[in-house]
Amino acid sequence: MAAERHFDPATAEVALRGLRASRKTLPAHLLYDEEGCRLFEAITRLPEYYVTRTELALLRQIGPELRERVGPGAAVVEYGAGAPTKASLLLAALDRPAAYVPFDIAESAVVATAEALRERFPGLALHPLVGDFMDGVALPDLPRPLLGFFPGSTIGNLDPEAAVRFLGKVRGALGEGGRFLVGVDLPKAPEVLVPAYDDAAGVTAAFNLNLLRRLNREAGAGFDLAHFAHRAVWNATDSRIEMHLQSRQRQSVPVAGVPVHFEAGETIHTENSYKRSPQAFLTLASQAGWHGEALWRDPDGLFSLHLLAS
Ligand code: AVI
């Protein structure tokens, strides 16, 4: 979880770059300030957001087979370790796991995750690692076999090029014999997808709009949140849910002293969440040198877990 910050020239620069483009965008990572992380946690418990509970149930179900495939004494490296629940399930399923590396950009998240697991798994070696996993940080010296873990369909927030780049970096870091367990959300009817990203209680709307509040604080912006609406749109061509913030009126908003003009109905594209069939995901994985060792889906065909091998 990121700490609260005040004016930050880097955020202002990145925001202005996106907002001055002909199609306005903001980078999705800006959604995750302290309040954004709290709202995302609340999203994972929403009735419409099937992702988290489906993946947890699937992880429970595949435990014995995973234990068999991975073998004893594994070291688990979790990319984007924001909470201990999924790692805890995975470690409990494995045969005497030797080490766990929670890896995330937010120091407080990796420390809290490691602390929670220290109590649950007293013999486990813990190596919290802080950094941007997109940059491919070198891992500490770890026992083998190595199992990377990237749950939650966070890979779905990466466009195809970034996903291949990331998968390649992980393959390089885990090395020969490394395996990678990845949660991948599956394509499904827009009637299920759109409410999952535009829930009745308005939590996802608050999560998206919070980005403007962050820019008011960190980019010297003057957004009136009441003048923007959250939109979740299914883009069938690219097989992704898009989150947008739509201007309710013609308006001009100052950002770091620069006026940014909005037409009524114009949107800021804030996030993509790709939904990938097994074939689509395995095509990306193979471009990064991985091959599929095992694939599991929940009985309703909502979500998948891929075990990749190098
Ligand atoms: C973090 N990530 C996998 C979420 C998703 O489903 O794409 C982010 C999210 N955005 C809105 N709701 C959830």
Overview of the structural elements:
The protein has 310 residues and is α/β, with parallel strands linked by helices. It folds into 2 domains: 9-31 and 191-274, no CATH class; 50-188 and 275-309, Rossmann fold. Helix content is 36%, strand content 24%. It has 9 helices and 13 strands. Strands 1, 2, 3, 4, 5, 6, 12 and 13 form an 8-stranded mixed sheet that branches. The structure holds N,N-dimethyl-L-histidine. Residues 43, 51, 152-154, 156-157, 197, 204, 271, 273 line the site of N,N-dimethyl-L-histidine.
Briefly characterize the structure.
This protein is of the alpha/beta class and 310 residues long. The chain has nine helices and 13 strands.
Looking at this protein, list some descriptive labels.
310 residues; alpha/beta; Rossmann fold; 2 domains; eight-stranded mixed sheet; three-stranded antiparallel sheet; 13 strands; 36% helix; 24% strand; globular; binds N,N-dimethyl-L-histidine
**Molecular shape:** globular
Mean pLDDT: 96
Report the uncertain regions: none
Write out the CATH superfamily name of the largest domain: Vaccinia Virus protein VP39
> What is the rounded distance between the termini?
32 Å
**SSE order:** HHHEHEHEEEHEHHEEEEEHEE
Backbone CA Rg: 20 Å
| β-strand amount | 15-25%
